[in-house]
Amino acid sequence: MDIRRLELLRELRDRGSVRAVAEATNRSTSSVSQQLKLLERESGVPLTERVGRGVRLTDAGRALAVSADRVIVAMAESQAMWDEFRHRPTGTVTLLSFPSAARLILPPLLLSLAKRPELRVLCQDRIAQEDEFIGLTTDFDVVIAHSNQLSPAWQGADLAIFSLFTEPFDIALPLNHPLAHSESIEPADLAGETWIGVPEGFPYHGVIAEVQAVTGSPARVLQRFSDFSITEQLVAAGLGIAALPSYTTRASQAGRFVLRPLTGGTAQRQVALLSRHEKASRLAVRQVIDEVLKATAPWRPAGAGSM
Hints:
By secondary structure, the protein is of the alpha/beta class. It is built from eleven helices and eleven strands. Strand 1 and strand 2 (54-57) form a beta hairpin. The protein is elongated, with a radius of gyration of 23 Å.
């Protein structure tokens, strides 16, 4: 069977429609359909079936897609072995990160990779819900993801997963706030404060919930934003306080506001690197992963890494 057709079958499994596969692979829908029909002829069994206006994989199609996973990983590992033999980790690597981690990771990463002109790294940032990052590995070689510390969204996913760091949430205060000179803050100190929060359903509301539990009164949330850079600006302007991730916020704090740890606070998030196995097998991608691990080493306990 043609490995390129096996790749299309797997893409159909992961993306759910011929149109989505066509867009992701820069083909026409008719071309994708034709290649899948040829693969079906090669395999000798129906691989797809009609559902409304679309198609889905049959049991045989799903089984062959699993086999395709193994074949594609093996091919990528073979190519990586050959690249390593030639000492040439060349090519383009695509990397996606959520914005606050990008501020922390990308400057040292890109400075280091600037010494490796044979590698081209194309970076993007995107605000995404934690359960969306696994799907993004279909479009990017490397995905920097965040999730709730207790039950990360990628747990059990069939991916190459590298733990980067576990990040606590601190309290961000305007420079002239009465608590700005405190070394740490008790939850009871925050009763009656005005908050800049996150949208309902985001995993970062834990600090406000902890404060509410201690004070016994609901927090007054003035505005809600998923983009922490907006929250930082509002805190710096004196419009409220916020719970912000400690390490990634310190990278952009620059004397605009202060961060103080919350005594007894348990709100944390895990930050990890996700990659499909065949992508992580590419020597160029492995080199980028190594550089990401180096860039995040100061925030990672000794011995932590792949999961």
